Amino acid sequence: MQITLENVTHTYQPGSPFQATAIRNVNMTVNPGEFLALIGHTGSGKSTLAQHLNGLLKPTEGRVLLDGQDIHEKGCDKKEVRRKVGLVFQYPEHQLFEETVAKDVAFGPKNLGLSAGETDARVREALEKVGLNYDDMAERSPFELSGGQMRRVAIAGVLAMRPECLVLDEPAAGLDPQSREEMLQLISGLHEAGSTVVMISHSMDDVARFATRAVVMEKGEAVMAGAPEEIFRHADRLVAMGLDVPKVCQLGLRLREEGLPFPEGVFREEDAAAALLSLWKEGKGHV
Ligand code: ADP
Ligand code: MG
Questions:
Q1: Measuring from atom 13 of ligand 1, which residue has the nearest CA?
Q2: Region for 46 from its dihedrals, namely left if φ exceeds 0, alpha if ψ lies in -120 to 50, beta otherwise
Q3: Which ligand has its closest atom nearest to the C-alpha of 49?
Q4: 23, 47, 51: which to mutate for ligand 1, most atoms within 8 A of CB?
Q5: Average pLDDT of the segment spanning 108-128
């Protein structure tokens, strides 16, 4: 499944004194099976863009195509678009509302009109996918769970719709280090199992570790796109936009400043270890 944005501009509250153009002329494609990271400074338009991918927001100008079909055209089933493209909002646990975990996760499939049996099977499947045990969890109140568990329940609610593409708005924000890591492993596992993933992230280390491609937003525009190694080659530009670069890139910059021939474009820990080892073996570095 492919999602294409063609010249998408979104202006909030047009014609009012609060008019604000959040994204401008964005052209991008989400390719089937990729893990796309959406990065950019706060206010650069990431969340606005994410809400266009499943048709929740409608472009003020431009088009959003799902497998070539304009999703805002008459005759396009908007419900089906929302089912195929699952959107996980930032802090999705704030939207839990049912008295039990099972009921919350069942909300989407029930709305699809699935039978009680099929709905229950979907709930089990979704909870399992997020690493929660159905028997332990189903009858508990979501509000007595830990923050990380609540977020998993919220994600399970989206997975219960069996989306082909999962869009997550800063899914690791506000979690403690261990829950963060578990959340990222969970998302990486879903990608490996075949989901297309779009993840908004502030952490360049996470982008370096998991993304197959990244799009960089600046002031509402998509200003860079490419594989992480291409993006992180422009470390100076990212820093100028107020973004971080992965710790490994910072290390590389520092080593080159010191005159060591540490290669550019290395941004993963294991590659850095190999590069340092080969420098050491060649006797070029004083490592
Ligand atoms: P990001 O997710 O990158 O932080 P957002 O998409 O949330 O960026 O916001 C982009 C811009 O749009 C910001 O200037 C923000 O103030 C504005 N904006 C976001 N939501 C609304 C809204 N509902 N009404 C008016 N302006 C908004
Ligand atoms: Mg945001």
A1: 43
A2: alpha
A3: 1
A4: 47
A5: 96
Pocket of ligand 1 (CB under 6 A): 12-13, 18, 20, 22, 40, 42-48
Please name which of 254, 250, 223, 256 lies closest in space to residue 237, comparing C-alpha atoms: 223
The stretch 237-257 carries a mean pLDDT of: 87
Ligand 1 atom, smallest distance to 44 CA = 3
What average pLDDT does this structure show over 279-285? 77
Are 129 and 139 part of one and the same domain?
A: yes
Angle between helices 147-159 and 177-192 (to 10 degrees): 20
Task: Using the mean position of ligand 1's atoms as its centre, give its distance from the Cα of residue 10 in Å.
Answer: 10
- Concatenated DSSP letters of 143-207: GGS-HHHHHHHHHHHHHTT--SEEEEESTTTT--HHHHHHHHHHHHHHHHTT-EEEEE-S-HHHH
pLDDT score of 30:
98
pLDDT band (50, 70, 90) for residue 280: confident
Q: What is the pLDDT of residue 285?
A: 52
- How many whole angstroms from 67 Cα to the centroid of ligand 2? 26
Model confidence at 286, pLDDT cuts 50, 70, 90, reads low
Q: Whose CA is nearest to atom 7 of ligand 1?
A: 47
Q: Are residues 190 and 287 in the same domain?
A: no
Q: What's the pLDDT tens digit per position in 26-45?
A: 999 999 999 999 999 999 99
Cα separation, 10 vs 61, in Å, equals 7
Residue 11 shares a structural domain with residue 109: yes
- Considering the domain architecture, whether residues 240 and 153 belong to the same structural domain is answered as yes
- Average pLDDT estimate for 270-278: 92
* Domains of the chain: total: 2
Domain, as residue range, for 279: 246-287
* Same-domain status, 233 and 192: yes
pLDDT at res. 13? 96
